[in-house]
Amino acid sequence: MAARTLGVGILGCGNISGIYLRNIPLFAGLELRACASRSMASARRAAEPLGLPAVTVPELLAREDIDIVVNLTPPNDHAALTRAVLEAGKHVYSEKPLTVSVADARALLALAEARGLALGCAPDTFLGGGHQLCRQLIDSGRIGRVLGGTAMVLSHGMEHWHPDPEFFFKPGGGPVLDLGPYYLTALVNLLGPVARIQAHGQVGNAERLVTAPGPRHGQRITVETLTHVTALLHFAAGAQITLMASWDIWKNGHPPIELYGTEGSLRVPDPNWFGGTPEISERDGPWQPLPSHTLPFGAPNYRGPHWPAERPDQANYRALGIADLAASLRAGTPHRSSAHLALHVLEVMDGILAACASGTAVTLAPTITRPPPLGAAEAAALLA
After folding, report:
1. Which of these is catalytic: 90, 96, 170, 251?
2. According to the CATH classification, is domain 128-293+339-363 in 1.10.1530.10?
3. Is residue 60 a contact partner of residue 97, using CB atoms and an 8 Å limit?
4. Per-residue DSSP letters for 300-362?
């Protein structure tokens, strides 16, 4: 594909759309051209401050000036809408998860490949400075061969900040499918694919009370998915990682991800963000902080409105995966936040839930390799 500006359309104008609308103009060769939503009112709220047209979903799919559609709809809508976009002949970048069904994800990947279209998927946080630094440390052997570790996705849920959190507690939601993609994608980037899974889970509270301001304030939600899950992930390269994903935890002191190698240990920053400060301990030495704020996509640029006031600013470059997808189209190379990676992560999450249901181990046949690192020169070329 010639090096031209690619038109981007936003499909779904809920909470997450704001950061994409803010960040897409940061990147070279991308131009926002329209917003669509099932609710024209929400499409207008997103589009008008930026001088963009608000259109219906069919109008978005029919526009000839849009090359990439960013699917930001709820997870249960991903399969049908991504299929519609691909059938309209456009590339797709989807919010996570790719779908809530492995079969649907495989079908979408096959459709994209048959039509010669790119299909990408969040999260792209593993491309940020903090996680790329951890990748360098792993690849250079600083902690030796990784034997084990922990990944902790722990909070007390979404109902205290999200204005309409019901879908989080229904089939297709839960901490594994909602937040798991960040942690699992980060782990696959560092360690490669998962081969075998053991897991157990439970529902911590049968109901959830919505305390966030908004239309659902004071209402109760019936919980229909597991909210506390513990899994043992056996990676093909040999590492064994304990993953706990819970919305039933009031407080904890665990680092998000901690890895233990034959020559030392590594603390990986929160994979929900792009920056952070990895910490390394070589053999039994002290923890050494390694700030990433000077690295590409590691500098703090964001403070989320729903986080505690004392939380430091975060690096939030959501849309980096779209820029990498666009660059891959121009160069004819694979993109990093690919549907192949997202499919494997979805297979892992599906395997975790299946292991919880059956009480037996689930074996995967991983065929992916780790995405290539994002070097400094490539990162710089992505910026406008």
Report:
1. 96
2. no
3. no
4. --B--TTS-TTSPPB---TTHHHHHHHHHHHHT---SSBHHHHHHHHHHHHHHHHHHHHSS-E
Domain range summary for the chain, segments of one domain joined by +: 6-121, 128-293+339-363
pLDDT digits (tens, 9 = 90+) for 150-193: 999 999 999 998 888 998 999 888 999 999 999 999 999 999 99
Eight-state DSSP code of residue 157: -
What pLDDT, in 10s, does the model give residues 12-27?
A: 999 899 999 999 999 9
DSSP result, 184-214: HHHHHHHH--EEEEEEEEE-S-SEEE--SSS
In this predicted model, what pLDDT tens digit does every residue of 350-367 receive, in sequence order? 999 999 999 999 999 978
Residue 214 corresponds to which tokens in the numbers above?
Answer: 């908004």
pLDDT digits (tens, 9 = 90+) for 40-79: 999 999 999 999 999 999 999 999 999 999 999 999 899 9
Identify whether 251 is a catalytic site residue. Answer: no
Which residues sit opposite 265 in a β-bridge? 260, 281
Q: What is the pTM of this model?
A: 0.94
Question: Given the structure tokens 């526009």, which residue do they identify?
Answer: 63
Segment (H or E) for 84: helix 78-87
- CATH fold of 6-121 reads Rossmann fold (3.40.50)
Look at residue 306 and tell me whether its pLDDT is greater than 60: no
